[in-house]
Structures are given as structure tokens and as C-alpha cells.
Design a protein that fits this description.
single chain; alpha+beta; Uridine Diphospho-n-acetylenolpyruvylglucosamine Reductase, domain 2; Uridine Diphospho-n-acetylenolpyruvylglucosamine Reductase, domain 3; Vanillyl-alcohol Oxidase, Chain A, domain 3; eight-stranded antiparallel β-sheet; six-stranded antiparallel β-sheet; about 30% helix; binds flavin-adenine dinucleotide
Length: about 475
């Protein structure tokens, strides 16, 4: 067991976005479950948090006392369970390693985000999702946790495999205890066909979902059109040109387009050039109507972690999507200095919720410089993942900035205004793993079963030792429905 801490030096860490610094007093990388229990017994009474790959931007990831890194718990076992496939996966296993092990056995995960660098425990703990499916949390069938026994005070292992406890454990922000392993539903490997088209009409984009259920689309700022990445499962074999398509994506989109955006934002600082690039240049690098079929785990992901950035993602229900997208365009125009106020209708609604001064303060403070990715997420069977608690589909709208970490003041103003106004106007829920500027009361009000989640956390962790100061504010209030 490598436990650096207590009297010994603490190792400072930064998250991917470099917006958070972790300063643990002790850092432990246990090699197996017994060592996790030993660490818990050794540090009884102290705050203990596990981390994955620190790819979250939210304070969910902060661990300022005892930090556990479970990278060595990374075993993968695939079994047939009745008529479906289930993998038992060590908490610290990176998704990319899990996918390559599953692929060797002809299987894959039912749902994937844009990158595969995260650990499985980290990904499910914040409700990581892709497009056209439930989040990964939804497919979790059991969670193996280390926590303290209330009677003996000793560290124990508990398997959570049904009921509301499982719904809570599927997306728990690290608040039930230390996840040792999870069981997740898998499926046989499949191919995905994709092609791009551009449209000025949202209705046309949404109609295409019937033929392309896995699609996602992008609102192109300053051009105000929708670039649609139509995707569907495909029985056909991998296309002959699939390798060329991958190379094109890597060179032109993953690196070329992102280098250009990073260069314009970090070094040129010209809003006029940013707008011109989005109106004319950036959309033109995306080839339309090139239909390519490839393995799902290649097609659904990209190298989105190649350049440091920061992101807020807001989830709205389908019936709110059109108004929400119109509203974000108006806010981007105010923040970018194109308009001084919102159009009359939305300006009135902003006054009704008391945020009119915030619009004044936002004017000309931030020029958005990345396509707003819109992904459909099906309703989850969890207590607090972002698409839980409804029968309707949700749409996740993401706002990404490539500004240098030291120059993000305008972005934070924009993100905070969007989150606060959209939570009130559209009941928008911020992603738990991304910038999350709402206070505890506002967050709680967005989830009908938040009280149940809190009650279960308080049962599993009655001393609150698995919390950090952010989750403490969310979980400290008395549970009214317990
Ligand atoms: C470039 C990039 C692309 C992204 N793309 C997507 C995307 O497409 N879709 C999407 O939904 N999200 C996306 N994300 C967000 C990311 O998936 C989540 O923030 C995820 O939680 C990060 O996983 P991680 O392994 O880095 O965990 P961390 O960020 O290290 O931790 C996340 C949470 O999990 C908890 N945790 C981790 N391990 C354990 C454990 N063993 N026991 C208990 N709690 C634990 C931590 O305490 C923390 O609360 C992206 C992030 C980046 C940086």
C-alpha cells in the first residue's frame, strides 16, 4: 500500500480544466479491496474522498483531506446474466481499457460519452452520458462500496444491488462511500453510421431523430445554423474508407479545428475574427453527406481532451428545447457585445426572476467561441443523474471555453448567468461533473427525489466522512422524507 500522508508530504493535484486545485493531507493508492478497508480504518474520523481521473470541472472532485486513487482496482470480468451481458469492473478502470477488454469478447458499453479517459466509478458518479441513450449510470446493476459500519465503527464492504439504494448509488457524487467495483450492463459490439448535414430549422433537425436516433447536433455561434451529426446503428460492415474518415477527424477536426479555436481565443483575442471564423471557416471543414460506418466505440468518441478547456452543460426537457435554444442565442449576443439587452419577451421574463442587473453586467463580457453541442439523453432510472425523474427525453446543451485558465472571468459570468436564469426559466439542470454554479437550494429544487438521495447518503455515511465541503452543503439539511 502506498499511503503518502499524515506526517508525510501532500501532493497537490489539478483537475483537467485547471479550475480546481486539490491539496490532500494524505494520498493513498490501495492495491486491492483489503487495502482500501485498511486505509479507511487507519483514517477513521477524517474526511475521505476517492478520485478518478479528475476530468470533472465541478467541486464534486475536491478531496482536501484523505484522497484515495483506485487506479489499481481495474479488473474486468464479462459474464452472461440471463439474456444479457454484464461486466464487473474495478472502480479505477479507465473506460478505454474497459472498452478494449470488452471488444476482445465482442461486447461494448450501451452508452458512451465523448471521451474514454475517465474511470468507470468517476464517470457514473456524475452521470456521464452521450447522445441518443440513457447515461452510463442508468445501466449500473450493482455497486460494491466500502464504508463504515455504524455499530462497530469499522470499515466494511457492502454490495448495493436493488431498490432506491441502487438508484442512489448509480450517480452519487462520491457520497455513499468508496466505490470498489460496479456491475454494468453491456451489449454486443455494434456499428454506427454517421454523416453531417446543416439546417437552419430546429424542427428539421429534430424530425431526423426518427431515422437517426443516436444523432447529436451543434448550434454554430455567430452563424446560427445547426450542424447535425446524424447517427444510427448499422448492420453493414465497417466502410472501406472508415480509416480515412478517422484520419480526417483526427487531423482536421480534433486537432485542426481545435488548434484554430485555441489560437484565436488565446492569442489573437479578436472577436471579429472569432465571429468570421464561425460564420465562414469552421463549418466548412465539416464534410457534408459523407456516410461512413465504423465500430461504435470508434465512431462515438473523439479526442476532445487534446486541448485544455472548461465546460458547463445544461439539461432541458424536450418541451423546453426550442425556447431554451432561442434564449441561449440571445444571451450569447448580449455577452458578445452584439446586443445590449435581450428581446422584449425574454427581457420581461428576466425581470420577473430578478436578474435584469445581471444582463447589464454580462453585456460585452464574453464572446462564445465553440459550437453548442446538443445531445439527447433518455430518462434515467436514478435519483439524481441529470435526466432522471421524467418520462420525457432531456437535451444537454454544452458551453465550452478555450480561454486560458487565468482569463476565464467572462466565461464564469456567462456560465453562472446561464445556469441561474435557465434553472428558473426552463428548469435546466447543470451536469454534476461540469461547471455547476447553482447553490444547494437551487440544485435540490431541480430533482424531485433529492430528499431520498440525501436520506440514503445519511444512512450509508452517517458521520458525513465521505463528503467534501461542496457535497456537505448539498447533503447537510435534514431529510424531510426519510
Ligand atoms: C475532455 C472531457 C470530455 C468529457 N466528455 C463528457 C461527455 O461526453 N459526457 C459527459 O457526461 N461528461 C463528459 N465529461 C465529464 C466527465 O465524464 C465527468 O466529469 C466524469 O465524472 C469524470 O470522471 P473521472 O474518472 O475523471 O472522475 P473524477 O472527475 O476524478 O471524479 C468524479 C466524481 O466521482 C467520484 N469518484 C471517483 N471515483 C470514485 C470512487 N472509486 N468511489 C466513490 N466516488 C468516486 C469523485 O469523488 C467525484 O465526485 C468530460 C470531461 C472532459 C474533461
Amino acid at each position: 500500500m502506498h499511503c503518502i500522508g499524515g506526517m508525510m508530504k501532500s501532493v497537490q493535484r489539478k483537475n483537467f480544466g485547471h479550475n480546481l486545485v486539490l491539496q490532500p493531507t494524505a494520498t493513498c493508492t490501495p492495491a486491492n479491496e483489503q487495502e482500501v478497508l485498511a486505509v479507511l480504518d487507519q483514517h477513521r474520523g477524517q474526511q475521505i474522498r476517492a478520485i478518478g481521473k479528475l476530468h470533472s470541472w465541478s467541486k464534486a472532485v475536491v478531496a482536501d483531506n484523505v484522497l484515495l486513487d483506485l487506479r489499481q482496482l481495474n479488473d474486468v470480468q464479462l459474464q452472461q446474466d440471463g439474456d444479457h451481458l454484464v461486466a464487473t469492473v474495478g472502480a479505477g478502470c479507465k473506460i478505454k481499457h474497459l472498452l478494449s477488454k470488452l471488444d476482445r469478447q465482442g461486447a461494448t458499453l450501451p452508452s458512451l460519452g465523448l471521451i474514454t479517459e475517465q474511470t468507470i466509478a468517476g464517470a457514473i458518479s456524475t452521470g456521464t452520458h452521450g447522445s441518443g441513450n440513457h447515461s452510463m449510470s442508468h445501466f449500473v446493476e450493482a455497486v460494491r462500496l466500502a464504508r463504515y459500519d455504524d455499530t462497530s465503527g469499522k470499515a466494511i464492504i457492502e454490495d448495493v444491488n436493488d431498490g432506491e439504494e441502487l438508484q442512489a448509488a448509480r450517480c452519487s457524487l462520491g457520497s455513499l462511500g468508496i466505490i470498489l467495483a460496479i456491475k454494468i450492463r453491456c451489449r454486443t459490439q455494434y456499428n454506427v453510421q454517421e454523416h453531417f448535414s446543416e439546417s437552419t430549422r430546429l424542427s428539421e433537425v429534430l424530425d431526423a431523430e426518427a431515422s437517426f436516433p443516436l444523432q447529436q447536433f451543434y448550434l454554430i455561434p455567430w452563424r446560427w445554423t445547426y450542424l447535425c451529426q446524424h447517427r444510427r446503428e448499422d448492420d453493414q460492415a465497417r466502410s472501406r474508407l472508415a480509416s480515412l474518415y478517422r484520419l480526417y477527424w483526427l487531423l482536421v477536426v480534433d486537432f485542426g479545428m481545435h488548434l484554430l479555436i485555441t489560437f484565436l481565443t488565446r492569442f489573437v483575442h479578436s472577436r471579429r475574427l472569432i465571429r468570421t471564423a464561425f460564420r465562414h471557416l469552421i463549418p466548412s471543414v465539416v464534410i457534408r453527406d459523407w456516410k461512413v460506418t465504423d465500430r461504435s466505440s470508434s465512431m462515438l468518441v473523439m479526442k476532445h481532451d487534446a486541448f485544455r478547456h472548461i465546460e458547463i452543460e445544461l439539461f432541458v426537457r424536450r418541451d423546453q428545447l426550442a425556447n431554451a435554444l432561442e434564449y441561449v442565442q440571445e444571451v450569447m449576443k448580449v455577452a458578445g457585445g452584439e446586443k445590449e439587452t435581450l428581446p422584449e419577451n425574454n427581457q420581461r421574463r428576466i425581470e420577473e426572476i430578478g436578474l435584469q442587473e445581471d444582463v447589464v453586467g454580462l453585456y460585452d463580457q464574453y464572446c462564445h467561441h465553440y459550437p453548442v453541442c446538443v445531445r439527447r439523453v433518455l430518462p434515467d432510472n436514478t435519483l439524481i443523474s441529470m435526466s432522471c425523474g421524467t418520462k420525457e427525453d432531456w437535451y444537454a446543451l454544452s458551453f465550452i471555453s478555450y480561454e486560458k485558465p487565468a482569463r476565464r472571468t467572462g466565461y464564469f459570468l456567462f456560465a453562472s448567468f446561464l445556469a441561474r436564469s435557465m434553472s428558473r426559466l426552463f428548469h435546466a439542470r447543470p451536469h454534476w461533473g461540469k461547471v455547476c454554479p447553482l447553490d444547494a437550494k437551487e440544485l435540490e429544487s431541480l430533482y424531485p427525489k433529492f430528499d431520498r438521495f440525501r436520506a440514503i447518503c445519511n444512512t450509508f455515511d452517517s458521520e458525513g466522512v465521505f463528503r467534501n465541503s461542496w457535497t456537505e452543503t448539498l447533503l447537510k439539511a435534514d431529510s424531510r422524507s426519510s
